[in-house]
Amino acid sequence: MNKCFLTLVAAMTLLGSLMAEMFAADGQPAGAPVKVACVGNSVTYGFGIEDREVNSYPAQLQRLLGDGYEVRNFGRSGATLSRNGHRPYHLTEEYQQAMAFAADKVVIHLGLNDTDPRNWPNYRDQFVSDYLTLINAFREVNPDCEIWVCRMTPIFHGHSRFKSGTRDWFWQIQRKIEAVAASAHTGLIDFHPRLYQRPDLMPDNLHPNAEGAGFLAQAVYGHLTGDFGGLRLPITYSDNMVLQRGKPLRIAGQANARETVTVKVAGEKAKTVAAADGQWTVTLPPLKAGGPYTLEINAASGKKTYKNVLVGEVWLCSGQSNMAFRVDQSVKEELEASLRHAATSPQIRLFDMQPRWYTNDVEWETSVLDSLNRLQYYADTQWTACNEQTVKGFSAVAYAFGKMLADSLGVPIGLIHNSVGGAPTEAWIDRKTVEFAFPDILYNWAKNDFVQDWVRGRGAKNIAKATNKAQRHPYQPCYLYEAGIAPLGQFPLRGFIWYQGESNAHNLEAHERLFQLLADSWRKNWQEELPLYYVQLSSLNRPSWTWFRDSQRRLMTQVPQVGMAVSSDRGDSLNVHPRQKREVGERLALWALNRTYGHACVPSGPLFTALQTEGNVAYLSFDYAEGLHSADGAPLRTFEVAEEEDRYVPAQAKVVGNQVKVWSEEVRHPRYIRYGWQPFTRANLVNGAGLPASTFQCGE
User: Fold this and answer.
1) What are 75's strand-pairing partners?
2) DSSP code per residue over 315-338
3) Cα 266 from chain centroid?
4) Which ranges in 463-507 belong to alpha helices (H)?
């Protein structure tokens, strides 16, 4: 019997071995491919894609995954998630086929058609329960299946129903999908971000082309395999970098799913596990100024080592051509002084993002246009230590700002510069902010009056050879945010400096909205109300600039955490690019030193606050009015007075204590005053710190 028993055991062992060979651990027959069901609407189906059987996202996913997988496309154009919608997915033939397939892995992308007014207003309350019902159906036919739900691909402003409801309902549905994933314990794949920055890949504003479908395939591939390309960090990480001191230090990047990431710098260490989408973040305790240090980041998929790292103050310096104006373009004495200082200032570090192509009056080649669409506008760069060579091509205003901070604070200074000549404000704002707060500026960009005519004309010239109707350009709304702000990856900062407005001066009312949106957009990206210090436009013979400068002055009372540096005394009547930049940068630094760092310096020249009248005399009060006097020792000039609005006459003015007395024999009852109200002005009122007063107009 023992012999029989041993024979039986041996037979059972052999049978078990054969069964193990026949079936994989997941219950599939050994060697059988893993079954992947791509469930969805027309985006999954591949509507509008040439040769969709080869180029739809499920077809591209099959090629990425290889022979070990069997990917099936169960997309149905027009399908709704809602079971009471106008074309419910669960009533389609594709649904029945997907059930019969009994997939091991299910990827669901539905919801776009639920934005239809026939659906969302009526059935929004059933959306989550309907989605859970669909998920449970797949689990019933294969209890072991893994399921991912997808945040929807974008719907762009060119969609016919965008402003009538689709825009709003789209984001409501996105939030519902996130809730579904949490409730049903499924994976969540975000189809939205990469396509949201590439409207050129969605010719009808709804359906991605083959290249766009490739983005979706890559996203699904990453979630199914955990392979997101290994350890990566934003472009701002390199040797010689400056990390922000004095507040919790956030360092974030990408790795493969679920792998451990360890970060070490300046004696601090933190460890985390990358999420299912490969994203990871660590927060180190606040670091003190100092260095040099080595920043080490380790994961199973790679290692990053950054040397000669300093800890100090980091600022983003942006705008258009007057911020881009280089040190080596400055007047001779400023250039020589900057080079002398730079030779002894290695603790100032520069991250200079230079355009690959300048927006000169030329037609760009088609290869340039393709790179623009791919958001490859800035040349690759890295942090460099400041010296005589590296500073020459750097922003003169930004360098003067950084030099004054370095001298005053005695800590390392990091300056990130990404300004672009001619760029309008709207180009620097994120798309979602513009879609909700100023959508009209997105439409028909080349002929939109909200966009300055010079900006439109130059953009049209640069992209004249384009064949793609959705061709991108750096001046287009949202473009520079997507190409120049988003890639910074929320790199920790202390604040922003901004010199821009020349390309929005045609419409100050629009700019007032856009400037607020710019501040909101950037602060939302960095998740902190960082200070924003900006330059008021200088003097130039352009009629609209008087009004625009006054609008910029008033913005200080409308936007929190801002300060304005006056530059009208350093203008040039014929040149939009005055060559004296040092004082402009230093005036920005005074705002930072006073407001951000608490130094007891005067941050600004006189800023008008109040008008009082006594008979035929007006008295003007100012902030920062200690020591009022004329800059050149001559009588105060460019004051004007009126009894009726817009009927101004030249006025006499003199300092009385900390006020300015203004009068004219021609005006018996002064009610309106203006100062420096010329496009190019020789106004000369300054305070005891020698800082110029802002031009202004006021009334009772």
Assistant:
1) 40
2) EEEEESHHHH-BGGGS-HHHHHHH
3) 29
4) 479-480
What length does the chain have?
700
Task: Select from 47, 146, 44 the least CA-distant residue to 94.
Answer: 44
Identify whether the C-beta of residue 60 lies closer than 8 Å to the C-beta of residue 36. no
Residue 34: count other Cβ atoms within 10 Å of its Cβ. Answer: 17
Whose CA is closest to 108, among 165, 151, 141, 143?
A: 151
pLDDT, mean of residues 452-465 = 97
CB 386 within 8 A of CB 403: no
The residue with tokens 């005399």 is 617
Is 500:423 a contact under the CB 8 Å cutoff? yes
Please say if the pLDDT value at position 29 is more than 70.
no
Q: Any residues with CB less than 8 A from the CB of 333 and at least 6 apart, and which?
A: none
Enter the tokens of residue 428: 């620097």
Cross-strand bridge partners of residue 349: 385, 414
Pairing of strands 146-151, 187-190: parallel
Strands (E), 208-266: 242-244, 249-254, 260-265
Nearest CA to 413 among 236, 564, 240, 598?
240
Which of 21-30, 384-393, 648-657 is the least confident region?
21-30
Q: Tell me the helix, strand and coil percentages in the chain, rounded to 5.
A: 35, 25, 40
pLDDT, tens digit (0-9, with 9 covering 90-100), for 53-88: 999 999 999 999 999 999 999 999 999 999 999 999
Task: Give the three-class secondary structure for 478.
Answer: coil
Query: Which residues lie below 8 Å from residue 499, measured CB to CB, with a gap of 6+?
Result: 319, 320, 322, 323, 397, 419, 534, 535, 584
* DSSP β-ladder status, 384-385 and 639-642: unpaired
List all residues 6 or more positions away from 34 whose beta carbon is below 8 Å from its beta carbon: 26, 28, 68, 69, 70, 104, 105
**Residue among 116, 111, 39, 42 at smallest CA distance from 82:** 111
Q: Are 428 and 441 in contact (CB under 8 A)?
A: no
pLDDT of residue 31: 76
Judge whether 450 and 507 are in contact, CB under 8 Å: yes
Outline where 578-648 has alpha helix (H): 582-591
| 540 neighbors 575 (Cβ within 8 angstroms) | yes
* DSSP code at position 90: G
Report the C-alpha gap between 547 and 566 in whole angstroms: 14
Predicted local confidence at residue 30, as pLDDT = 57
How far is Cα of residue 621 from the mean position of the Cα atoms in its chain?
39
> How many percent of the chain have pLDDT more than 90?
92
Contacts of 258 (CB under 8 A, 6+ apart): 226, 273, 274, 275, 276
- Cα radius of gyration rounded to whole Å, the chain: 31
Query: Given the structure tokens 């893994």, which residue do they identify?
Result: 146
Which residue shows structure tokens 């209890």?
Answer: 143
- Rounded Cα gap, residues 652 and 645, in angstroms: 18
**Phi and psi angles of residue 150, each rounded to the nearest 5 degrees, phi first:** -115, 130
Q: If you search the block for the tokens 């924003």, which residue do you land on?
A: 532
Spatial distance between the Cα atoms of 398 and 325, rounded to a whole number of angstroms: 9
State how far the Cα of 434 lies from the Cα of 210, in Å rounded to an integer. Answer: 27
Q: Is 474 helix (H, G, I), strand (E, B) or coil?
A: coil
Strand intervals (E) in 336-387: 348-352, 384-385
Residues 6+ apart with CB under 8 A from 460: 446
Cβ contact 509:549 at 8 Å: no
pLDDT at 14 (0 to 100): 45
